[in-house]
Every structure is written in C-alpha cells, then in structure tokens.
Amino acid sequence: MMLKALIFDLDGVITDTAHLHFLAWKSVAAELGIAIDERMNHALKGISRMASLERILQFGGKATTFSETQKIVIATRKNERYVALLSSLGPDAILPGIAPLLAELKKRGIKAGLASASLNAPRILASLNLLDAFDFCADASRITHPKPHPEIFLAACTGLGVVPEECIGVEDAQAGIDAINVCGMLSIGIGASLNNAGLLLSSTEELTWARIAGLLDYTDKATAVNR
Ligand code: B16
Ligand code: MG
C-alpha cells in the first residue's frame, strides 16, 4: 500500500475536549431538570450536537417535551458555554505523540486530514496552533450522514485528492472505526474496547511513525499471502 494520507478524528485523538462538552451539557441539562453523569459523557463521544441533545432528553424522559425550535435554542445555549470553556485550550492540550507525528508526516510528504463531527473543529485547531499541520479539514456542517456512515471520511479523501485505499484513519469512537473500515481505509483505534480496528493502541503516545510503518508492512504481507 502506498500511504498518501492520514485522516484524523479530532476529539479524543488530536485533543480531548470531552470534559468540556460534558461540563457544558451538564449545566444545560440541569436547567431542564436532567442530571447527567460521566457515563452519559462516554455515550456522547463522537455524536453530533443535536444527536447528543436527543440522547440526553431521552435519558431524562423528556424526548417529546420540546419542539424542534426549542431544541435548537437548548443546543445553542450548550454550544455557547462549550465555546466559552474552549478559551482555556492551548497547544499544551495537544495529546501526547500527535505533534511529532504530524511533523513526521510533513517531512515524508504524507498528507494530514481531519474528519471531525465537531462544528467547532477549525476553532479548536486554531487554539491548538495546528491549522497549518492539516492539509484539509472536512466541513462537518456539510455532512448529512453521521459516523458510522463513511461520508465525512470520504469528504476528507476528496478534499485531500486521495482515494481511501491510500489512507489510514485514526479514531477513538466505535462509530468512527466502522466508518473508516466501510471506506476501505486502514483503521487505527485509540483507547480500549474498540472492535475491528486494523491496529488498536491504548493511547496517542503509541501512535508513532514506527507503529504506522509496522501496520503498513503487516498489511502488505497479509495481502501478498492472500493473493
Ligand atoms: P460540536 P469528534 C465530536 O468530535 C465530539 O466527540 C462529540 O462529543 C461532539 O458532540 C461532536 O464532536 C460535535 O461537536 O458541538 O462542537 O459541533 O470526536 O468527531 O472530533
Ligand atoms: Mg472522537
């Protein structure tokens, strides 16, 4: 396989804003009379803003309480609080191993793309001082099918000018791994309890060029044996 690009998820791979999402949702949910805990936080990983609200309302037994307009008001309130919390984010919030890996990719002429469900992705990359490290960021506002649908990863491939078979996708959520696999890209999972990842690593610290080269080598040998 001729590797041309790595396509990254953002939250949980490049940085970790899950606790900020949680704090914002927690305060908004409390005003609706719904108490959420860390378990709910885990369930919202990689899920879009409106889908997250639906899950919280369902959990609180209020799935049919609000109109669509009211739901947009609630989601906007959550986002305002989340964005305010994002002001604390700086380059020190880049997860371990990511900055050297992005530098290594640049050195090798391998492109970097972003496939995040977050509408705040460009703002977060700017806070991390990483905008220049990415060749293309898929625009979450133009995506109609959430992960595990492959749409956002395919949009990233198109934007980078590569085909999925030349790419590796990196994700920390099961829906993301499934989306990458459906595309025909190689998948790398970050964290425990992810199924069907081509390579599963316990943290981004292990996401080194050596591990990626090892995965490519293994895949090439497996393809040759199956031929
Ligand atoms: P926003 P990812 C996802 O980011 C988060 O994991 C998820 O918790 C969040 O609801 C979603 O982005 C949407 O974020 O409200 O900023 O549009 O993992 O796809 O990078
Ligand atoms: Mg994620």
From TrEMBL:
GO biological process terms, alphabetically, are: carbohydrate metabolic process
Q: Which cofactor does it need?
A: Mg(2+)
Provide the species name.
Answer: Atlantibacter hermannii NBRC 105704
Where, by residue number, does Mg(2+) bind? 9, 11, 171-172
**Assigned keywords, A-Z:** Magnesium, Metal-binding
GO molecular function annotations of the record: beta-phosphoglucomutase activity; magnesium ion binding; sugar-phosphatase activity
Which superkingdom, per the lineage?
Bacteria
Does Magnesium show up as a keyword for this record? yes
* Gene of this entry: ycjU
Q: Pfam families from the xrefs?
A: Hydrolase (PF00702)
- For the site labelled Important for catalytic activity and assists the phosphoryl transfer reaction to Asp8 by balancing charge and orienting the reacting groups, the residues are 116, 147
Q: Where is the active site?
A: 9, 11
Its family remark reads: Belongs to the HAD-like hydrolase superfamily. CbbY/CbbZ/Gph/YieH family.
Gene3D superfamilies per record: HAD superfamily/HAD-like (3.40.50.1000), Putative phosphatase, domain 2 (1.10.150.240)
What's the name of the protein?
Putative beta-phosphoglucomutase YcjU
- How is the cofactor bound here? Binds 2 magnesium ions per subunit.
InterPro entries found in the cross-reference section: B-phosphoglucomutase_hydrolase, Beta-PGM, HAD-like_sf, HAD-like_SPP, HAD-SF_hydro_IA, HAD_sf, PGP-like_dom2
Residues where substrate binds: 9-11, 25, 44-49, 52, 78, 116-120, 147
